[in-house]
Each structure stands twice: as C-alpha cells, then as structure tokens.
Amino acid sequence: MIPLKFLSLPPGFPHIIVNNILAIFRRELQQYFFSPVSFVFATLFWFLGGIFFVNLLVGPQGIVTAVVLEQQRGIPLPPMDMAAEFLHLFWGIMGALSLFLLPLLSMGLYAEERRQGTLELLATSPLTNWSVSVGKLLGVVTFYSVLLVPMVLWELIILSAAQPAFPLGLFLLMHVGVVLLAAAVLSLGMFVSSLTESSLIAAIMTFSLVLLLWLLDLLGDRLTGGLGETIKHLSLLKHYNNFLNGIVDSSSLILLSSYIVLGVVLTAQSIEYLRFARR
After folding, report:
1. pLDDT at 3
2. Residue pLDDT tens, the chain, 279 long
3. Which site among 31, 76, 110, 249 is 20 to 30 Å from 141 CA-CA?
4. Where are the domains of the chain?
5. E strand or H helix at 260
6. CA dist., res. 149 & res. 145, Å (int)
7. Counting runs of H as helices and runs of E as strands, what totals does the chain give?
8. List of residues 6+ apart from 153 with CB closer than 8 A
9. Which of 58, 271, 94 shows the shortest CA–CA distance to 185?
10. How far is CA 212 from CA 103, 175, 209, 236, in A?
C-alpha cells in the first residue's frame, strides 16, 4: 500500500495551478482586446446581430409589424408572448450564425502558436498542458461574452416595455445557453487548432465538426429506435433549443459541459504529444 504522504500534492499546488491559468487567461484576453482581427470580428458580429435584431422586431416580416398589420385588418390574434417569441427567434438565428463566426475566434488559439514557433515553448514550459488550455479557453469565452453585452442592453430596452414583465429566470437561462454553446464550440475549435499551423484549415475543420454536431438532431429524426435517440441526444441544436425554450434539463447542461471538457482534454493530450515528440 502506498503511503499517503506520496499521494499528497506539493504545498501551494492549487495556488500555483490557479496562478498559471490566470496568467494565460490575462495573456489571451490582452491579445484579443488589442488585436485588429478581434476588432474586425466584433464589428462583424455586432453589425450582423443588429441587422437581425431590427429586422425581427420591426422589419417587413418582423413580429411588431405582423401584429400591427393583423390588428389593422381586424383579425383577432391568439394569445402570444411577443417578447419570448422575439428572443427565441433572435437567439436561434444568432446561434446558427455562431457556427460560422466562432471558428474564426478559435482558429488561432494554437495554430498561431504553431506558426510563430511559440507552441514549442509552451509545450516544454513548466506549465501543465491542461492549465494552458483552460486559460486560453477562458480568455476567448470571456471575450465572446463581452461582445454579448451590447445585445443584452438592446434586449433590456425592448423588454422594459413588455406587459406582463418578461420572466427573469427565462432571460438568464437563454443567455446561459448562448454562453455554453459558444464555450462548447470554442473548446472543440481549440482542439482542432492544436492539430495544424494553418488558421484557415483550423477554421474550416472546426466549422465542419460543429455543423455535424448541430445537424445530428435532423439525422436522428430520420433514424428509428435507440440509435436515432442517441444521435439526437448528441446534437448541439437540440440542447441549445432547450435553453431557448426555458426548459431546465440537466442532460442539456451535462452534454454542453461535456463538450467543453472534451475539447480541453483533447487539446491537453495533443500538446502532450508535441511535448513528447520534442524530447
């Protein structure tokens, strides 16, 4: 039997790990907020988000426009929660849009390190592989979350006029789903980025992988029995929609969290292989 003293961690070990993660996190966050590419990404994200927001609200096919036209025609309207319907449509579209945009954020997480030759330094540094991966993921997820702030303000302005008041729990649940979806996509994209030094290839491969995971729900509908249900359960779309619909489902939380952890673990193993190859 192994004595317990040999299983104990070095003094201050958790503190060292946290400091390493925070150091990588600050480094990544600084790069995002001072990178011209990040500013282009933010501008594109806000521009497209603004277009969809306005069109879904007051555009020719918008919710408000449709209600006004029906009232002018004297057509009785069924009971409808316009605020919930609008937010569901808006974040449904933004979720699909994220499939195209998020790989542009994750593509350089490790691919640029490979291209610049700094990945070898990370691989041979005293930092643990998973602490580097966690720090990088926290940095990019934080940057994406900051980009959501203007959209949340837009929503709050609209919801301030909603009667009855929009449920705070549903509002928070929707946005938790948005952040979890982004974290899952970025985590998987981080792993793909660790496999190549080409950011473009990393973006294309990440988009293909995430699109497959997004469409598993449709594939599962075409299959019968347990296989179809299993495939549907792995779908990003199915579990993301649960959050948008206000469904508190522990399986959705677990699955999206599992994709996040999977991406971190696979990335750490990929860098460990590089560390071993450099010996």
Report:
1. 44
2. 334 443 344 455 567 778 888 888 898 888 888 888 888 899 999 999 999 998 888 777 777 676 666 666 666 655 557 788 888 899 999 988 888 899 988 888 777 766 666 665 565 555 677 888 899 999 999 999 999 999 999 998 888 877 777 888 888 999 999 999 999 999 999 999 988 888 889 899 999 999 888 888 778 777 777 787 888 888 888 889 889 988 888 899 999 999 999 999 999 888 877 666 655
3. 249
4. 17-277
5. helix 250-277
6. 7
7. 13, 0
8. none
9. 94
10. 14, 23, 5, 9
Q: Which of 77, 115, 106 is nearest to 198 (CA)?
A: 115
> Residue 50 is which amino acid?
G
* Tokens 């971190």 sit on residue: 264
List the one residue out of 19, 155, 37 whose CA is nearest residue 86.
155
Q: Which ranges of 34-118 would DSSP assign to H, the alpha helix?
A: 36-58, 63-72, 82-106, 108-116
Q: What is the pTM of this model?
A: 0.86
The tokens for 178 are: 């948005």
Spacing of C-alpha 245 from chain mean position: 18
Alpha carbon distances (Å) from 254 to 191, 234, 239, 240, 262 = 20, 11, 10, 12, 12
Residue in the block written with tokens 């926290």: 138
Enter the tokens of residue 190: 């981080």
What SS3 class is residue 54?
A: helix
Which pLDDT score is estimated for 78? 58
DSSP of 38-50, one letter per residue?
A: HHHHHHHHHHHHH
User: Phi first, then psi: what are they for 61, rounded to 5°?
Assistant: -110, 15
